[in-house]
Design goal:
- The structure is a single chain.
- The protein is mainly α.
- The protein has 2 domains: 144 residues, Herpes Virus-1; 260 residues, Alpha Horseshoe (Leucine-rich Repeat Variant), CATH 1.25.10.10.
- The protein has 26 helices and 3 strands.
- Strands 2-1-3 form a 3-stranded antiparallel beta sheet.
- A hairpin with a 5-residue loop joins strand 1 and strand 2.
- Helix 1 packs antiparallel against helix 2.
- It starts with 10 loop residues before the first helix and ends with a helix.
Length: 463
């Protein structure tokens, strides 16, 4: 009689292996016989292969189950190492196999993946995908062990993850993503529901981090459009708003920004969407730019110019989101250069002179004042009288501080501006008052200007 190798002496495992092989043969026939690619059959075949591989890898466990020493260990109630999750070090409730063939408890490997990790915790191999395949063999062995020791293990069907999602929730999520490649009406229906779910339930935002294909699937209706007329406004708005909801989830920020189609589609939305879509696209860029690596990526992608153009348009609904995005992006030097090149100084000064969103825009202008070209533009655009008038008018210490900091840089860069400063001080004593009553930074800057003005007066009298 032919030996069954690893499965010899373990009838249950032999039967399991035979069933898996039969199912695998059926899946392979389905894949080969059909003209089109049967994705469902491919996925099932992959699961069968993983399960067979696991049977082979768990040879030692299978043999030990019939070993007297191992029986004694189980009788003592000690959890076998093979039944513990490598991450939690506890008995696995829902064992799943990842791309490297290693088995983990589902909620713990999900948490690992949602944290942005794309390697196997044990082997450190890069994962080719993040599909989690149920390990039925190990689960059956764990259930038998629990039964022998009077331990109740939650059933996998009713088991709920730590995020509060059931298997039905996950199936619904996958169903919605699948609809994003169907008819326009189905795309619109699915996009609207995904928008609502990701707004109300943080756990649904986290689901997008479990598969590298989830975000591309969400964006597929916009990615496949070749011209503006092909993008339905409501569909674009719902998809972009869903992206905004996803980007709020900290563990998603890197994944969202580094998905190749995301930033180009956000830039397109800034230019072509409804005002709500454009505002939400700006808010998404602001949220993503919390990470420095994302700031650089967004800046290189050319997002600053459409943000500045939208700021120039001045729509009340979009102004704060746009200003916040520009401010965050300009924290890094390279983006300051890009913003100045793309006309930020002119647009910001125009809005400030009209007393629109002065608080936010002064903060950006102060940040840009470390750039020499920006300072030159401010001088040419008559920023000095405007900033001095704001110091006189405003009761906001932060605004006064930003104004005097910008004035300090302008005046020490352009000697022709000292005349305006002397006249201001002579008429209103604006700078002296700030040197006495401003914030500590405002006092330093105002005192520096006063010192320079007094020195110039002393030199004139001496001459």
């Amino acid at each position: 009689m032919a030996k069954s190798g690893v499965f010899e002496g373990d009838p249950t495992t032999v039967v399991k292996a035979v069933e898996l092989k039969k199912e695998l043969q059926r899946m392979v026939r389905a894949i080969v016989d059909e003209d089109d690619v049967n994705l469902e059959a491919l996925d099932k075949a992959q699961q069968m292969l993983f399960a067979l591989r696991e049977l082979k890898l768990k040879k030692t466990v299978s043999l030990k189950l019939h070993n007297h020493h191992y029986d004694n260990e189980m009788a003592s109630g000690t959890v076998p190492e093979e039944f513990k999750c490598p991450l939690s070090k506890e008995l696995m409730r829902d064992p799943v196999i990842i791309a490297t063939g290693q088995t983990y408890d589902k909620p713990f490997i999900q948490k690992w993946l949602k944290a942005g990790n794309r390697t196997c915790p044990l082997t450190q191999q890069v994962l080719s995908h993040t599909i989690l395949t149920p390990n039925h063999l190990i689960r059956e062995m764990i259930m038998q062990w629990c039964k022998n020791h009077g331990i109740k293990l939650p059933d996998s069907v009713s088991y709920m993850s730590e995020e509060g999602l059931t298997g039905a929730d996950r199936d619904h999520f996958l169903s919605l993503l699948g609809k994003m490649s169907l008819t326009l009406s189905e795309q619109k229906e699915a996009a609207k529901e995904l928008r609502l779910l990701t707004k109300r339930m943080p756990s649904f935002r986290a689901l997008f981090g479990e598969s590298v294909d989830a975000i591309p699937q969400l964006l597929s209706p916009l990615s496949q459009s070749n011209c503006e007329s092909e993008v339905h406004p409501d569909l674009q708005e719902d998809v972009i708003t869903t992206l905004l909801n996803l980007s709020i989830h900290d563990n998603n920020k890197k994944l969202v920004a580094e998905t190749p189609t995301v930033i180009p589609l956000l830039i397109d939305a800034l230019k072509t969407g409804t005002i709500e879509t454009r505002s939400n696209a700006a808010a998404t860029l602001f949220t993503l730019s919390a990470l420095d690596s994302n700031k650089a990526l967004i800046g290189k992608s050319g997002a600053l110019k459409p943000l500045i153009d939208l700021l120039d348009e001045g729509h009340p609904l979009a102004m704060k989101d746009v200003a916040s995005a520009i401010f965050n992006l300009c924290i890094i030097h390279e983006n300051k250069v890009r913003a100045v090149r793309d006309g930020a100084v002119r647009v910001i000064l125009k809005k400030i002179m009209s007393r629109l969103h002065v608080d936010e825009l002064l903060s950006i202008l102060a940040m840009l004042s470390t750039n020499q070209k920006a300072i030159e533009e401010m001088g040419e655009l008559e920023a000095v009288p405007c900033l001095l008038s704001i110091i006189r008018e405003t009761s906001c210490d932060r605004n006064k501080e930003n104004c005097i900091a910008i004035l300090y840089t302008i005046c020490f860069s352009d000697r022709s501006k000292w005349k305006v400063m002397r006249e201001e001080e002579s008429m209103y004593r604006t700078i002296s008052q700030l040197a006495q009553n401003g914030t500590s930074r405002a006092k330093r800057k105002a005192s520096g200007i006063l010192e320079r003005l007094n020195r110039a007066v002393n030199l004139t009298h001496t001459a």
